[in-house]
Design goal:
The protein contains five helices and eight strands. The termini are far apart. The protein has an eight-stranded mixed β-sheet, covered by helices on one side. The chain folds into two domains: about 1-30, no CATH class; about 30-170, L,D-transpeptidase catalytic domain-like, CATH 2.40.440. Helix 1 runs antiparallel to helix 2. By secondary structure, the protein is an alpha+beta fold. It has helices spanning about 1-10, 20-25, 105-115, 135, 150-160; strands spanning about 35-40, 45-50, 50-60, 80-90, 95-100, 120-125, 145-150, 165-170.
């Protein structure tokens, strides 16, 4: 039976609704998390279940990492409470999880300032076209406001998360 699990998982992984959940149930390396926490100042993304850290990953942020995102094009990574809105296996980056930015608070702050809050904030792997290769290996921030991880880490994050999951991005 053990020899069948690996090939079965490989066949099911392209099916996000079936393979993703079945893979998590069958793989002790990829237990299902119930929350994502991003610690911007530490450059870490942590996956939690029942209040315990399951895994921690190194991240890169927007080119202007300090402070919360306030408007489109400011190159900042947002801060606040969001959720995992959707998964995109065919992104321009290696896999992508869409963060539900802007939330109501972000929208209200942008409206009060008369600016567009922006959007399309993702947790993703590396660009599929090889851009930013020199910066990625040196622990430098390089995104337009997204949260980037290595491709290997993105596979683990993908397998351990589900749409609707809470995401907290802390300063």
């Amino acid at each position: 039976m053990g020899r069948l699990i690996g090939p079965l998982l490989l066949l099911l992984l392209p099916c996000p609704h079936l393979g993703g959940s079945l893979a998590n149930e069958l793989s002790p390396q990829h237990p299902r998390a119930d929350r994502i926490v991003v610690l911007k100042s530490e450059r870490k993304l942590q996956l939690y279940r029942a209040g315990e850290i399951l895994r921690s990953f190194d991240i890169a942020l927007g080119l202007v990492p300090e402070g919360p995102k306030r408007e489109s094009g400011d190159l900042r990574t947002p801060e606040g409470r969001y959720h995992l809105e959707s998964k995109n296996p065919e992104s321009a980056y290696f896999m992508a999880l869409k963060v539900s930015y802007p939330n109501e608070r972000d929208q209200a702050l942008a409206a009060a300032a008369g600016v567009d809050p922006g959007g399309m904030i993702m947790i993703h792997g590396q660009p599929n076209d090889g851009r930013f290769a020199a910066m990625r290996g040196q622990g430098m921030d390089w995104t337009d406001g997204c949260i980037a991880v290595s491709n290997a880490d993105m596979v683990d994050i993908w397998l351990m998360t589900a749409e609707g999951m809470p995401i907290e991005i802390q300063p």
